[in-house]
Each structure stands twice: as structure tokens, then as C-alpha cells.
């Protein structure tokens, strides 16, 4: 280290590192960084040391070993002959499924509750206030367990649906069965299958991809149509009639495709111990879904309320002065501006939902935490590797969601020119 | 749960390197207390009684070890563990011995680095169903919903059994025995499967035990026993031979009733060696000569413990079966005290 600085004339003394304000902050930063690195090094060294003392190595080979256990909710092909890595994938997809549906319902619930809480109707606003406070102030885990326990204890067993004098019956023209194991609803089936595309680790049905493509295409076409209508309106002052074109674009192609594929529903029916056919929504899934949606919905409601209140009162008055109805005012003036305030906290609520899915272990929902972080770790004894992998996956999911939402946020935020 | 495992992992990682190599016996003596991992409550095996005292068949092993090492069967701290947390707790040193109806398997012994100190109960996996279901054999369970404790060998056996018999089932993963009991009684699962002894113990706590039957099929071998972490032979020998002392005591006719009498000296040199009148077996692994006497005094010999906790006179009502002495046609066989 150069001890003197000839060019400036003033001589540099080591004590200046501490007493000279020009250098002090840098000295402190360097010292703290070294301490931090030393701390990390000590942790890593200690881990390695102790793993060696326990006679354990550090590797991820267990992921390719046969898992040997069964998972009840599977979105992809999985048997107990599959590997632990495959079990992890099944768990990951279950986590993502739960997170996705919960985010959607929580947003819907949150926006409705947030808007209604500002309602001038005393009963409506107080009811929403009650909902928000009740769900926000009780731990999520309790809500999950309460909903699960209610479903399990108070719903009839499948055997109650059996026989001539059954004590329970299915709802909606014998299509939905609510049991203490879960809810059986009609499931979609196709008579013609176009096969599946094998994407290496998962194979996706071409039917599904086709339907997805048609739906996305229709939505895109509809948006183009509406844009065109707006352009015409701005040019001529007359808005062309679009509603029947919209309906045609949105529903005609998908109907054609569904008929071509021989779409029909399979209805649940009682066979043996349980209902068979149809789609089975397990209690664990329903409890997680409801609890996550209602709990996070309460937080989102508060974000929405805050966002709306952040829009100046003058905006509403101006809209009313232009003769707009309250519903138009909300949809066209208030909410678009409120979104700028709502989106950033909404991102963290979505992240919370995703991370809170790991509470599924409490009701036996087979998410990533239960498969990789639960059974796999337990059967293989790879706690450290499993937990690190688990943390890494959750981190990756969260960063992805965060990234996507930030892109959306950039598109709606105030454009400063 | 996430936290528990993770904290356990961290604890394993951050434990001072010294503790891993130091003798467990010295640690336990210095602490004056034995940390014993038990279940979260399986009646008859390990469950707190109305006074909050832990009682049961597995608990008795811990008390015997505490009596041998610390001269007081009460000096045990019971740490509840689930099927998922038990191994982490043992590997990290949070508990000294795990007595939680844990099955002795190759991979747990070799790969998870534990030492099984013997078998205190020869068990097998069974099925319990409600009589109203009208099932008389496990072969009729195709399509059933099965409650199963996660992180156990039973989970793997179940998968194997249904696969071999070409049947399907819907697993309902459950964390503890109490949860399983609640789910099973609510009818959320048709079948509850775990070790047959555990099923009997669980059934004994039902309001209507007569309405539930254990199916005749026993689908696996489940040798249950206490276990300790690898790497401390002295400690594993103490636990192993304490268990053997209880078994040998029954074989030799040493009971808590005649213990004091026999401890004064007998004609049988094996009893004398066991109770410390002859030779110096205790000091060979760092205990005094009366260790086995204290261990037997804690709860009686193996047969007395069995009878008092899970035997036929208790609500659980398990027959000795495989767990009789080898002289009675069972599998219990203690190596000689010599």
C-alpha cells in the first residue's frame, strides 16, 4: 500500500484511515466486508467440516434414484418407480398450480372487496371491513387448518351417497359431489386425441396446446377489433357496432375446435370406495386455495383501497362534471390511475402467495415442500442438499414472478415525458 | 415444519466440531439429563399420561438408559419428533437416543449414519378399516383412500404392496398419528396403515374400538428399536446393552420384585454378572457395576414393561407373538453377559 501521496503534497498517515472523514467510511466498509466474508467462510467451512465428521458427502445423486412413494395429485406422469427428481417436478407443478389459481382468485376478491369497502352503503362497507380485518389479523395457517377441518368433519363420506336410501346426494343435476375427501366435479374429455409433444421431461397434450392457441388467438383478434373500432370512432366520431363481431371472434373458433375434438364431460360416479371419473379437487387443495385467496385477498383489498384513495378527489368530481356515471368514473378514470399505486404492493402479495403455498404441508398438500422438502429428504437423508435446492427453486420462482410483474408495472406506470 | 428441519440442518452444520468427537456419555453425564426423542404421542409406546409424565414402551427404554447412566430414570428430557424431524434431530445431536418406533433398515443404518441398538419390538405393517366397509382382506382395497404418515417406511411398503398386487389407491399424507386418527375417524380415508402395534394402540383410544378391525395381512417386516448416531461406539453399546439387559433379565427370571434379593448374590453366575456381583462389565464401557440393576429397577424387565404398557391386560392388548423370548418361540435373544 502506498503510504504517501507525493503529488498532493500532504503526507498520508495510517491514522488518517480512521480519523480523516475522507477515508473513514471506506475503511469501515472494507472492514465490515472482510468480517462478513470471514463469517460466511466460517459457516461454509464448519458445514463441510461437520458433514465430514458425520461421514456425509454433498451430492445431488439422490435426485435420480427411484422415489418409491406415491403422490396423490399429479399434473404429469408419475409413479412410485419415478425418480426423486421427477417427484420434485410433480411437487413444483403442484406449487405453481396452487400459486396461479390463488393469485387469480385473490386478485378478484381483493379488487371487489377493496372497491366495496369504499362504498357509500354502510352495510356493504362495514361487511368488507369485517372481512378484511378478520382475515388479515389471524395467521394464515389457522385459516388453512380451519377450512380443512370443516371440509373433513362436516361433509359426508362417499359411502353416504351409496344405496337406495342415501343420506347425501350430488349437486347440480348429479354432476358435483362434495365429500369429506374433496370435491368431485365434471372433468373435460376428448374423443379424439392428437397425441402429445414430448418436451424432454414433460409431455404436453396437443389438444391442450391447440385449445390454448385458439383462445389466445381469439383474444388477440378481439383486441385488434376493439382497437380498430376506437380508431374509427376517433376519426369519424361514430363507433361501429362491435358486440356481435366480438362474440363471434371469441366463441366461434373455440366451439368449432371443441366439437372437432369431440369434447365432452366425464361425470363423477361412485364406484368402489370413492367417486371415479371427473376431476377430483382434494380437500388439501381446496383448503389451501380458499385460505390463500381469502387471506391474501384481504391484503390486496387494502392495497386497492389505498390506491383508489390516492387518486385525488378532484378526478372524480371532474368526471362527474363531464356527466360520467359512477361506474364509468371508477373504470375509466379512477382505477387506471390507482393501478400505479396498486401494482408494486401487489407484486409482493403474489410473492407471498407463492411462498405461503409451502404451508401445504400442514394439510398434506403435495407441493414442492412436501415432496422434495418432506418425503424425499426424509427417505434419502439429504437435508442440506434438499433444503438448498428447495430454497433455490423458491427463489427462482419468486424472481420470475417479480420480473414479470415489473414488466407489467412499467407498462401501466405514469409515463413521464 | 420447514423451520424445524432447516434449523436442524443448520444446527447440524453449525454444531461445534468438538461435540461430534467428544464422548456422548460424558456429555450426558455433564448435562445430568438424557435427551430422548419420542413420538408426538402413540398410546402405549410414548405418550404423556394425565399427570404429564411420559409413559410407554419406548419411553421405558429411555428411562432404563437414564437409570443406567445417570442413576435416575426421571432424568430424561423427552423431545417430541415427527416422522419427518426425527432423523435430523438425532443427526444434529439435539437428542442422544431416538426411541420412536423406528424401523431398522439398511439405508437408515448405512446411509443416514445411525446405529440401531437392537430391536425392542418386532412389528409389521397392517391395515385398519371400519367394519361398516365390509372389507376382510387387504387384497380388496383397490381404489381405497389410505391415510399414511409421511416420511416413514410404511409409505414405501404401501406403494410396493399396491404395486405388486396391481391395485390403485389414493394416499392421504399425514404428519402425526393424532392427525391420522382424526382423519380416519372422520371418514376422510377408508384405511389407516402403519405398524400393526401402532394401529392397535390407536384403536384402543377410539370411543368404539369394536367397530374397527385390523386386516389379517401384515405386509412388511418392521423391526423397531432405539437408535443413536454413528461415530460413538461406547454410547451405542451402552444403549444396546441396556436393552439387552432388560431382555436378559426376563430370560433369567430377574424381575423388579426379586431384583434386590438377587442382587445380594445368587448361584447363577450369569445373573451375578448382569447385576454386578461378579466381574466388572459396567466399568468396561464407563459405567459402574450396578448399571444393569438400575436399568431393570426403572421399569422392570422386558416382559414387565411389555405387560404394563402394551400387553394383553392393557387397553392396547398386544400379544407377545414374535416378541416372546426365544425360549418361548419368539425372537427375543440377548447375547450373553460375559
From TrEMBL, chain A:
GO terms for biological process: amino acid transport. It is found in: Cell inner membrane; Cell membrane. InterPro entries: AA_ABC_transptr_permease_3TM, ArtM/GltK/GlnP/TcyL/YhdX-like, MetI-like, MetI-like_sf. Pfam families: BPD_transp_1. The chain crosses the membrane at residues 26-44, 96-118, 130-151, 196-221, 242-265, 285-304, 388-408. Keywords: Amino-acid transport, Cell membrane, Membrane, Transmembrane, Transmembrane helix, Transport. GO terms for molecular function: transmembrane transporter activity. The keyword Nucleotide-binding does not apply. GO terms for cellular component: ATP-binding cassette (ABC) transporter complex. It is a multi-pass membrane protein. Residues 92-405 form the ABC transmembrane type-1 domain. The keyword Cell membrane applies. Belongs to the binding-protein-dependent transport system permease family. HisMQ subfamily. This is ABC transporter permease subunit. It comes from Szabonella alba.
UniProtKB/TrEMBL annotation, chain B:
It comes from the Bacteria. Keywords: Signal, Transport. SUPFAM superfamilies: Periplasmic binding protein-like II (SSF53850). Gene3D superfamilies: Periplasmic binding protein-like II. Residues 33-262 form the Solute-binding protein family 3/N-terminal domain. InterPro entries: Bact_solute-bind_prot3 (IPR051455), Solute-binding_3/MltF_N (IPR001638). The keyword Nucleotide-binding does not apply. Residues 1-22 form the signal peptide. One of its GO terms (biological process) is amino acid transport. Belongs to the bacterial solute-binding protein 3 family. This is Amino acid ABC transporter substrate-binding protein. It comes from Szabonella alba.
Amino acid at each position: 500500500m502506498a503510504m504517501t501521496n507525493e503529488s498532493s503534497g500532504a503526507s498520508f498517515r495510517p491514522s488518517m484511515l480512521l480519523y480523516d472523514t475522507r477515508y473513514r467510511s471506506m475503511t469501515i466498509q472494507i472492514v465490515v466486508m472482510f468480517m462478513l466474508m470471514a463469517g460466511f467462510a466460517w459457516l461454509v467451512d464448519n458445514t463441510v467440516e461437520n458433514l465430514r465428521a458425520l461421514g456425509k458427502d454433498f451430492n445431488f445423486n439422490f435426485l435420480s434414484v427411484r422415489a418409491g412413494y406415491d403422490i396423490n395429485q399429479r399434473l404429469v406422469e408419475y409413479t412410485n418407480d419415478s425418480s426423486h427428481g421427477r417427484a420434485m417436478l410433480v411437487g413444483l407443478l403442484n406449487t405453481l398450480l396452487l400459486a396461479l389459481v390463488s393469485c387469480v382468485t385473490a386478485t378478484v376478491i381483493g379488487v371487489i372487496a377493496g372497491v366495496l369497502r369504499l362504498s357509500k352503503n354502510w352495510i356493504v362497507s362495514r361487511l368488507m371491513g369485517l372481512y378484511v380485518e378478520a382475515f388479515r389479523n389471524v395467521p394464515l395457517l389457522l385459516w388453512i387448518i380451519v377450512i380443512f377441518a370443516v371440509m373433513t368433519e362436516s361433509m359426508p363420506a362417499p359411502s353416504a351417497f351409496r344405496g337406495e336410501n342415501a343420506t347425501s346426494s350430488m349437486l347440480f343435476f348429479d354432476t358435483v359431489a362434495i365429500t369429506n375427501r374433496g370435491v368431485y366435479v365434471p372433468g373435460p374429455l376428448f374423443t379424439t386425441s392428437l397425441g402429445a409433444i414430448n418436451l424432454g421431461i414433460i409431455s404436453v397434450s396437443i389438444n391442450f396446446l391447440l385449445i390454448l392457441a385458439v383462445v389466445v388467438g381469439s383474444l388477440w383478434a378481439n383486441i385488434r377489433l376493439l382497437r380498430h373500432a376506437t380508431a374509427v370512432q376517433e376519426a369519424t366520431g361514430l363507433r361501429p357496432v362491435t358486440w356481435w363481431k366480438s362474440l363471434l371472434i371469441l366463441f366461434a373458433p373455440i366451439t368449432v375446435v371443441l366439437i372437432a375434438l369431440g369434447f365432452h364431460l366425464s361425470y363423477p360416479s361412485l364406484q368402489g370406495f370413492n367417486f371415479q371419473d371427473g376431476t377430483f379437487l382434494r380437500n388439501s387443495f381446496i383448503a389451501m386455495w380458499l385460505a390463500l385467496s381469502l387471506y391474501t385477498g384481504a391484503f390486496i383489498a387494502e392495497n386497492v383501497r389505498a390506491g383508489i384513495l390516492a387518486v385525488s378527489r378532484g378526478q372524480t368530481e371532474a368526471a362527474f362534471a363531464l356527466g360520467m356515471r359512477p361506474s364509468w368514473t371508477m373504470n375509466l378514470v379512477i382505477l387506471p390511475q390507482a393501478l400505479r399505486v396498486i401494482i408494486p404492493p401487489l407484486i409482493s402479495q403474489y410473492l407471498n402467495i407463492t411462498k405461503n403455498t409451502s404451508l401445504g404441508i400442514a394439510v398434506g398438500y403435495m407441493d414442492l415442500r412436501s415432496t422434495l422438502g418432506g418425503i424425499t429428504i426424509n427417505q434419502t437423508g439429504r437435508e442440506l442438499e434438499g433444503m438448498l435446492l428447495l430454497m433455490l427453486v423458491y427463489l427462482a420462482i419468486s424472481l420470475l414472478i417479480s420480473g414479470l410483474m415489473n414488466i407489467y408495472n412499467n407498462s401501466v406506470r405514469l409515463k413521464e415525458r | 415444519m420447514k423451520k424445524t428441519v432447516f434449523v436442524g440442518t443448520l444446527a447440524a452444520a453449525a454444531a461445534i466440531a468438538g461435540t461430534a468427537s467428544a464422548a456422548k456419555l460424558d456429555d450426558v453425564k455433564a448435562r445430568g439429563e438424557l435427551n430422548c426423542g419420542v413420538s408426538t404421542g402413540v398410546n402405549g409406546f410414548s405418550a404423556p399420561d394425565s399427570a404429564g409424565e411420559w409413559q410407554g414402551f419406548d419411553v421405558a427404554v429411555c428411562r432404563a438408559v437414564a437409570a443406567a447412566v445417570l442413576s435416575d430414570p426421571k432424568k430424561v428430557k423427552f423431545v417430541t419428533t415427527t416422522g419427518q424431524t426425527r432423523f435430523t434431530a438425532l443427526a444434529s445431536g439435539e437428542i442422544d437416543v431416538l426411541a420412536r418406533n423406528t424401523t431398522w433398515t439398511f439405508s437408515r443404518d448405512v446411509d443416514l449414519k445411525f446405529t440401531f441398538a437392537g430391536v425392542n419390538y418386532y412389528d409389521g405393517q397392517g391395515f385398519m378399516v371400519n367394519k361398516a366397509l365390509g372389507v376382510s382382506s387387504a387384497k380388496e382395497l383397490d381404489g381405497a383412500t389410505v391415510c399414511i404418515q409421511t416420511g416413514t417406511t410404511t409409505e414405501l411398503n404401501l406403494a410396493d404392496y399396491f404395486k405388486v398386487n396391481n391395485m390403485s389407491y389414493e394416499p392421504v399424507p399425514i404428519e402425526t398419528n393424532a392427525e391420522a386418527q382424526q382423519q380416519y375417524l372422520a371418514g376422510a380415508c377408508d384405511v389407516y396403515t402403519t405398524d400393526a402395534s401402532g394401529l392397535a394402540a390407536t384403536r384402543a383410544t377410539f370411543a368404539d374400538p369394536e367397530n374397527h378391525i385390523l386386516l389379517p395381512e401384515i405386509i412388511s417386516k418392521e423391526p423397531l428399536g432405539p437408535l443413536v448416531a454413528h461415530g460413538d461406539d461406547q454410547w451405542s453399546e451402552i444403549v444396546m446393552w441396556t436393552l439387552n439387559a432388560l431382555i436378559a433379565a426376563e430370560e433369567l427370571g430377574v424381575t423388579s420384585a426379586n431384583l434386590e434379593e438377587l442382587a445380594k448374590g445368587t448361584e447363577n453366575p450369569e445373573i451375578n454378572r448382569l447385576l454386578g456381583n461378579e466381574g466388572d462389565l459396567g466399568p468396561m464401557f464407563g459405567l459402574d457395576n450396578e448399571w444393569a440393576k438400575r436399568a431393570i429397577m426403572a421399569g422392570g424387565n422386558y416382559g414387565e414393561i411389555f405387560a404394563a404398557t402394551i400387553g394383553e391386560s392393557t387397553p392396547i392388548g398386544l400379544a407377545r407373538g414374535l416378541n416372546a423370548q426365544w425360549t418361548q418361540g419368539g425372537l427375543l435373544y440377548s447375547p450373553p453377559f460375559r
